[in-house]
DNA sequence: TCCTTTCCGTTGGAAATCCAACCGCAAAAA
DNA sequence: TTTTTGCGGTTGGATTTCCAACGGAAAGGA
């Protein structure tokens, strides 16, 4: 497991810890290390899980499958990223999504009881705090998304999204991490409707944009 | 503060603790007790807060105000309920909503550093675990809401909502805690559109309902 | 260079929702 | 009892989005 120490320290769960503190903490937390072949299923939708996954090598994806068999990629998890964090302490809840290894992947699984034990160590506090921060920021992110999706009209979704992004990034003009299709997916609308709304708003002088760089104009 | 002990023990943060353990834990966590007059503002949208509120007496409301001055009630917080839990450990983030006391209200405010100190006590572990559970379940709840709001058509929103509710409640027929208007607000559609979709689906044999009691029919 | 691919804006008809209004029923109030 | 109020279903025109398709511009590959 030693060779993954740099990756582990890079994760949001272990950030701001030193490599000297890590072995003792891992001895307490006792994560299970598992390796999966490319394409292998890690978690199946419908299972009840209460563990947190830390990807040490390879790449895994969160997949939503509907009864018709369509596969939709919800998220891609790279080394040092986490998954399942909301299920660790929520009690046994059924997963609405599946998790697949897209390449050969090594994952560390943490269990709720053992992970809490690290709080007895002075440096363990840091881990608990990191975990609380991860969950809090996840809630705020989802809250933001709900605020966007609650808007009935495409133009309003765009404005709510760009305004919160501008506040978060503290820049104007601002760059967003999506192309048009991805932005439309995030806002929950068709790409054509998004493009149409954007050109209407540019016409109306509300904003300006080129590609993924947007400028919000003040006043209404 | 003693007279609020039963309320505090009833909160999700302190649940499954005994009244004997409480005084020592509160001495460490050092919450600030504040009392507000009816109508008084507790937090103003735009402020940066990093504390958790526990309502001990009275009632407070989460309010969303738009530039035009319309007030929208996001949530009503009764004694033993919490607010601000997602802001405690998220770093200083600006509030998108305001919090008002609707009646004379007494609130305990916990700060992030002091609250973490309770983890040194054996019973303090329970509090940390409760907090992790609160944040996790909040994320799952928001996830569910995003799944609903992401549906483009009213009928699909209804189906996603009822199916997850049926799974959660483990009952069919199931009762929901909303009337039509509240259900429409939750799903992000007009009440008329919801009523129309519901009667279409009843016509099609997908489900049955009277008032707020719904029966899902299997097969498609 | 040419060809292929990707991205983005546009368009038009079909479909769905919004919005305001009206109605009937049932529970609550007088 | 009668009256009032709240809730839920329905309706129709205006508005908006969806959906599929097309075309141009830019980037990448052969």
TrEMBL record, chains A, B:
Residue span(s) of domain Cyclic nucleotide-binding: 13-118
Annotated protein name in UniProt: Crp/Fnr family transcriptional regulator
InterPro entries in UniProt: cNMP-bd_dom (IPR000595), cNMP-bd_dom_sf (IPR018490), Env_Response_Regulators (IPR050397), HTH_CRP (IPR012318), RmlC-like_jellyroll (IPR014710), WH_DNA-bd_sf (IPR036390)
Keyword Transcription regulation in record: yes
Family annotation (Pfam families): cNMP_binding (PF00027), HTH_Crp_2 (PF13545)
Top-level taxon in the UniProt lineage: Bacteria
Gene Ontology CC terms: cytosol
Organism: Loigolactobacillus bifermentans DSM 20003
Single GO MF descriptor: DNA-binding transcription factor activity
UniProt entry keywords in alphabetical sequence: DNA-binding, Transcription, Transcription regulation
PROSITE patterns, sorted: CNMP_BINDING_3, HTH_CRP_2
Domain HTH crp-type: 152-220
């Amino acid at each position: 497991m030693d060779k993954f120490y740099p990756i582990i320290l890079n994760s949001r769960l272990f950030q701001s810890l030193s490599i000297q503190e890590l072995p003792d903490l891992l001895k307490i937390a006792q994560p299970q290390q598992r390796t999966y072949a490319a394409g292998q299923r890690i978690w199946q939708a419908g299972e009840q899980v209460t563990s947190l996954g830390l990807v040490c090598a390879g790449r895994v994806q969160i997949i939503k499958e509907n009864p018709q068999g369509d596969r939709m990629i919800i998220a891609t998890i790279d080394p040092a990223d986490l998954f399942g964090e909301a299920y660790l302490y929520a009690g046994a809840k059924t997963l609405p999504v599946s998790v697949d290894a897209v390449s050969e992947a090594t994952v560390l699984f943490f269990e709720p009881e053992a992970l809490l034990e690290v709080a007895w160590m002075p440096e363990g506090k840091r881990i608990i705090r990191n975990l609380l921060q991860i969950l809090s920021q996840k809630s705020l992110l989802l809250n933001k998304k709900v605020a966007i999706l609650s808007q009935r009209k495409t133009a309003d979704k765009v404005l709510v999204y760009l305004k919160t992004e501008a506040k978060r990034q503290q820049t104007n003009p601002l760059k967003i991490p999506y192309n048009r299709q991805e932005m439309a997916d995030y806002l929950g609308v068709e790409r054509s409707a998004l493009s149409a709304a954007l050109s209407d708003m540019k016409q109306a002088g509300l904003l300006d944009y080129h590609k993924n760089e947007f400028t919000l104009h003040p006043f209404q």
